[in-house]
Design goal:
- By secondary structure, the protein is an alpha/beta fold.
- The protein has two domains: about 1-245, Spore Coat Polysaccharide Biosynthesis Protein SpsA, Chain A (Alpha-Beta Complex); about 245-310, no CATH class.
- It is built from eight helices and 13 strands.
- β9 (about 165) and β10 (about 170-175) form a beta hairpin.
- The radius of gyration is 20 Å and the shape is globular.
- It starts with a strand and ends with a helix.
- About 35% of the residues are buried.
- The model is unreliable at about 5-25 (pLDDT under 50).
Length: about 325
């Protein structure tokens, strides 16, 4: 593993007069998780750099202060940033997944006093008014239970994918349209990318189970936060994200096996888990996969997962 903070800056930050890299009371640490992709190819990379050099308003409830680039690639990716005091690179060649990235970001946020952490995958784009919408959502939820996270409305093209609900037996159901209301926060979940989580709240749910290296980490996190009695606010920000599991025709065999394994651990840990309902739903999913993809090896993964469900009493 290698850690590289940047010094000085072509963007006018770092040691330039009038600037400070000390955390502010509304400071946000962004953590961008890379895998075999250069930072310049991350859709929101330009936006992050713009936010870091923008003047900080004392009245703003959210202000990007620092950006951790957590690279899980086998070989370290080029940043093409020259030097930048507010960017920090950490390369983990062993690929610890988003779990390792979030834990490392938590350590930095706690050490430097950043009260919020912004999670970002390398295939997520952010709108220019993202923080303004986030502030509005936090203000609207101020009278409710403590807010542990603010999540945007996330789309893969025209398809809404987050936030979503978890059924009584643990199945994650995405919203059917962007007008879906989430007034009742019970069972609310979301994808982690583009979510802003309170540092203290993230620390309160540790340890993160090793089963959630990548898949279902976000759903586990938001469920555990709500079990502590905290509230998840939904902002009006519209975020674009490329969801890899949308295309089963190109899904890797090992990737899908890992998803189903994490799913089983997550569902079984639900207080209202129903093995019968899970098995029936999974059987239907297997049949649908068989008809739609005609990929016998992928279907085989589903069949073996069905046996694991039955053996998970």
């Amino acid at each position: 593993m290698t850690c590289l903070p940047f010094k000085n800056s072509e963007f006018g930050l770092g040691e330039a007069p009038g600037h400070s890299i000390l955390a502010s009371s509304n400071g946000v640490l962004a953590v961008v998780v890379l895998y075999k992709r250069a930072f310049k190819d991350v859709p929101c990379s330009t936006r992050l750099k713009q936010w870091l050099i923008a003047p900080k308003l004392a009245s703003a409830r959210f202000s990007l202060e620092h950006c951790l680039i957590y690279d899980n690639s086998p070989e370290a990716q080029s940043l093409d940033l020259d030097s930048h005091a507010r960017f920090e690179l950490f390369h983990n060649a062993s690929n610890g997944g988003t779990r390792a990235a979030y834990l490392h970001a938590l350590k930095i946020a706690q050490a430097r006093g950043y009260p919020w952490i912004l999670f970002l995958d390398h295939d997520t784009d952010l709108p220019h008014d993202f923080f303004l919408d986030t502030e509005s959502a936090l203000a609207a939820a101020a009278h409710e239970a403590p807010v542990c996270a603010i999540v945007p409305r996330v789309f893969d093209g025209l398809t809404p994918i987050s936030p979503s609900r978890i059924t009584s037996y643990g199945r994650v159901c995405a919203p059917q349209d962007e007008k879906t209301a989430f007034e009742d926060g019970a069972g609310l979940t979301a994808i982690a990318s583009a979510s802003i989580v309170r540092t203290a709240s993230l620390a309160s749910v540790l340890p993160i189970p090793a089963s959630f290296t990548l898949d279902y980490l976000d759903h586990w996190l938001f469920r555990e936060l709500q079990l502590l009695g905290e509230n998840i606010a939904v902002s009006s920000a519209r975020v674009e994200h490329s969801l890899s599991v949308q295309s089963m025709k190109s899904m890797g065999i090992e990737r899908y096996r890992a998803i189903l394994a994490a799913e089983l651990v997550f569902l079984r840990s639900s207080p209202q888990y129903s093995l019968a309902q899970h098995f029936i739903w999974h059987t239907g999913r297997t049949l649908k996969l068989m008809l739609s993809t005609r990929r016998p090896h992928l279907v085989g993964v589903c069949v073996r997962a069905a046996m694991n469900i039955l053996q998970s009493k």
